[in-house]
Design brief:
The complex is a heterodimer. By secondary structure, chain A is an alpha+beta fold. Chain A is built from 17 helices and 20 strands. Classes of the chains: A alpha+beta, B mainly alpha.
Chain lengths: 550, 314
């Protein structure tokens, strides 16, 4: 009996020990920390994707843009309200033929060395060097000789940018460029320290230690595909105004539901891009839903190549006349945060004194069926046909793309008797077909690169590569040129108004909506910038409110 | 034995070459443009990009360069993950998939053998019906449903407990692996259960079992020594392909549980037409499958003395 009892006690101990071991294994090393911590000034986030390219010179995607918006800084930067303010540059002067930037003396790299004018000269030269193959090289084309260098006709040293001394940067422009200051906040124009860049060679930007930072944060840890951490940069000139110590991103997944589940488990401070399922869950749990406009404008683009029926203006006018974008946004897509729109320009961009769309409201189609049919009859007459051939609508395979395509198909069929064939394609294939012009209608979108209406307006200039429908109008090109060259604000705003008028009269596109994105945010996390320019989301001005009980 | 292995290795190399060539041809015939981006680029920038990635050369020449590099074990730099070598992507992310896969496989095999044996022992009684019903569900419901249910399950458990017993997503500890591995192994477990059940039933009616029973061997000993050992052979046969299927098929699980495995890169590369990553991962997975099947064939000889590879029986 005594023996038996001893044995069973040992057995219990062994089992308890095993449970403890299992429990320790489960919780050891796991990131069980909360989404935000007031004491250590830390927030945790989930990201949709590994940043594909942190070399600012070549980087193009939004995830890298978000990281770069924290760890790098250009001559100018965006403040908490989204206004352009001084970054590395303390003051500046923009002229017809160029610009001068005076750099602040306390701007430093994360190794403690000074950010000099030469660092800008080097990175801008790299950006237009043909072998670097930067996709955004054309954004520098307002600078003298930039295009010639990029086409290999000139040496990069002939680019119109010079360092007068360590702290004075002189830029020469080949034509007036009213939006040039906005460009200097764009990532392609961020500085790069030459000695560091050449020492790293092809490894530049490949890992956390292969980058030099001059922004409010530095990349302190980067485990590929798994996690990214950004720590406050002790050398940043404006460090006293940066509250957070650590932005920790221990989760990378494209699955929006997974990101929402992490938020519900209090592991992250923000869950972005809620889809309809997670939105329902969030509403049920009475979370505070937030939205913001990410700058993307969506529209139907017409193919205006010679062999396409959509080249006929009256057919386009007929489609414009019957299309009700309110129905699409509110009844079909049902995504909160998105706004129906009637113009190419977003509601948050400035005009002369107020927002542009408030100063110059766009004309709305009357939704007059009779008028639409008259347009259609005229179109048939001009095309010399009894019935129109089937019209191909190119769409992407996302849920939103599908809904829009189905709505268009039904609506245009019922209202105008048009036969719409939907051509659903995945991302790369859709892009390829847009490029070669294999479509009649395509639902496409456009996001801004810099803080000026021109980033949208020049889209349908005949020379623009992104004008996939090949719309060409001398009048349109003329007003684009005015907006490009003039430094007079009211003259430019007038030009944008003219462009808006042409877009409606010529039915260049049918504007659909301004995309809004839906997210939830920890109630104690404040000062987060959700924005269209400069990388989103941004935590440079974020802070945590103290817990209620302290 | 050596001759057998050499022969199999040679045919393996040919298989891998065939996989590489077929993928190369398939990849280049898919419509779409690997360099296309939402924003179009000017022709001169486009030419610069093509030169950078070697796409300015004719396709047959690209194929030649690819084969040459492949022989040196160099798959080049990713198109979408700039500055990252495909070899680095495989080296950093395959171990994650492998660890998860091995755990999933252990769960699947142990579970499959136990459940399969139980169904055979309790044939046509309620444990059999219940297990077989669950098996049908596990086989027919796609893994993303289980992945999402698993995650919601953890969430509900944590909410109920008031603290996080298991992490909802992420990677780094054993707790992170448990539920993902279970979800990942579920399909294979169901398949193995069915396999085990039929093979157990086949063995049960064999002559040597009857002899053992007649000799008065205790039922538990018959079960362990004679039934289980003989019935497990078919399970071992499918283990090779199962290992490959589990370690490569983790895409959905990796996505839902935010696990930095290779499966994600594999699927994303195809969606984004990332030529170098497609080729690198396909060839790697192909080679992995070939080696696993070969290993199982060799292992088979050790487990079943009747089968000795390479020996001609007369």
């Amino acid at each position: 009996m005594g023996f038996f009892r001893w044995h069973s006690v040992a057995g219990i101990q062994r089992i308890t020990g095993m449970w403890c071991l299992l429990f320790c294994l489960m919780s050891s090393g796991s990131v069980q920390a909360e989404g935000l911590d007031y004491e250590s000034r830390t927030i945790r986030l989930a990201m949709s994707q590994e940043p594909p390219d942190l070399n600012a010179i070549t980087s193009t995607d939004s995830v890298s843009g978000m990281i770069l918006g924290h760890v790098m800084e250009g001559l100018l930067r965006y403040d908490a309200e989204g206004n352009l303010v001084g970054g590395v540059a303390e003051r500046w002067q923009l002229r017809d033929d160029g610009a001068t930037f005076w750099l602040r003396k306390d701007a430093r790299w994360s190794d403690g060395s000074r950010v000099t004018a030469q660092d800008f000269v080097f990175s801008w030269q790299q950006a237009v060097t043909p072998s670097v193959a930067s996709e955004y090289a054309s954004i520098l084309f307002p600078i003298t000789n930039a295009q010639a260098v990029n086409e290999g006709r000139m040496d990069p040293s002939q680019l119109g940018v010079r360092a007068l001394d360590d702290h004075t940067l002189e830029v020469s422009l080949h034509q007036p460029c009213p939006y040039f200051l906005g460009l200097t906040a764009f990532r392609t124009l961020f500085p790069v320290k030459e000695s560091f860049y050449t020492a790293r060679g092809s490894r530049y930007g490949a890992d956390a230690e292969d980058l030099l930072y001059n922004g409010p944060f530095t990349l302190s840890k980067w485990v590929h595909g798994a996690s990214v951490s950004m720590s406050k940069n002790p050398h940043y000139w404006n460090r006293d105004n940066i509250w957070l110590n650590l932005i920790d991103i221990p989760y990378i997944t494209e699955d929006a539901n997974a990101r929402m589940n992490l938020y519900r488990d209090h592991k992250v401070a923000i869950a972005s891009d809620l889809n309809s399922e997670s939105l329902e869950g969030a509403l049920r749990e009475r979370m505070q839903i937030k939205t913001f406009l990410d700058g993307a404008i969506f529209y139907i683009e017409f193919n205006q190549r010679a062999d396409r029926v959509t080249r006929n203006r009256h057919l386009r006018k007929a489609i414009q006349q019957v299309f009700n974008t309110d129905d699409l946004v509110y009844k079909v897509m049902g995504s909160p945060g998105s706004y129906p729109t009637y113009t190419l320009f977003p509601r948050w961009m400035k005009g002369e004194k107020d927002f542009f769309v408030r100063e110059h409201p766009a004309q709305k189609p009357e939704l007059n069926m009779e008028k639409a049919r008259r347009y259609l009859d005229k179109a048939k007459q001009e095309l010399g046909v009894e019935t129109l051939p089937p019209i191909t609508l190119l769409a992407d395979d996302s849920p939103g793309g599908q809904k829009t395509a189905e709505y268009l198909q039904t609506m245009l069929g019922q209202a105008l008797g048009l036969e719409i064939r939907v051509d659903m394609q995945i991302f790369k294939q859709r892009l390829a077909k847009m490029g070669t012009g294999e479509f009649d209608l395509v639902v496409s979108g456009w996001g801004p690169d810099y803080d000026d209406l021109l980033t949208y307006a020049d889209l349908f200039a005949s020379h623009n590569m992104n004008n996939r429908g090949r719309y060409a109008s001398e009048e349109y090109d003329h007003w684009v040129e005015v907006a490009q060259r003039s430094l007079d604000v009211s003259e430019r705003v007038h030009a944008f108004d003219q462009l808006q008028r042409i877009i409606f009269e010529d039915a260049v596109i049918v504007p659909l909506y301004e995309r809004g994105r839906v997210y939830v945010n920890h109630p104690r996390l404040k000062g987060v910038s959700r924005r269209a320019l400069g990388g989103d989301p941004n935590f440079n001005f974020a802070y945590i409110e103290p817990p209620a009980d302290s | 034995m050596t001759q057998f292995i050499l022969k199999r290795l040679l045919s393996g190399v040919i298989t891998i070459w065939f996989i590489a060539t077929a993928t190369f041809i398939g990849m280049h015939s898919v419509p779409g443009d690997p360099l296309a981006n939402e924003k179009a680029v000017a022709p001169e920038i486009r030419r610069n990009l093509e030169a950078r990635y070697g796409l300015d050369k004719p396709v047959w020449q690209q194929y030649g360069i690819f084969l040459g590099n492949m022989l040196r074990g160099d798959f080049g730099i990713s198109f979408t993950q700039k500055n990252r070598y495909v070899n680095d992507i495989i080296r950093e992310h395959f171990p994650v998939s492998a660890v998860l896969g091995v755990l999933a496989l252990i769960i699947a095999t142990v579970g499959g053998v136990i459940w399969g044996a139980l169904t055979a022992v309790y044939r046509d009684r309620w444990p059999d019906s219940v297990i077989m019903f669950l098996v049908v569900i596990a086989v027919s419901v796609p893994s993303f449903v289980f992945a999402m249910l698993g995650q919601l399950g953890i969430l509900a458990m944590n909410e109920w407990l008031g603290f996080s017993l298991l992490p909802v997503a992420g990677w780094g500890s054993f707790g992170h692996m448990l539920v993902p591995a279970l979800v990942l192994g579920l399909g294979t477990m169901a398949y193995l259960t069915r396999l085990m059940r039929s093979s157990m039933l086949e063995v049960t009616s064999a002559d040597y079992i009857r002899t053992a029973k007649a000799k008065g061997v205790p039922p538990l000993r018959i079960f362990y020594k004679h039934q289980l050992r003989n019935a497990i052979l078919p399970v071992i046969t499918v283990l090779g392909p199962s290992i490959a299927a589990i370690t490569t098929g983790g895409f959905v699980v990796e996505l839902v549980f935010a696990i930095p495995g290779l499966g994600r890169f594999f699927v994303q590369a195809v969606q984004q037409l990332d030529y170098t990553v497609i080729m690198g991962t396909t060839v790697f997975y192909g080679a992995f499958l070939v080696i696993m099947v070969l290993l199982v064939d060799i292992l088979y000889g050790f487990i079943d003395p009747r089968i000795r590879v390479g020996k001609v029986r007369g």
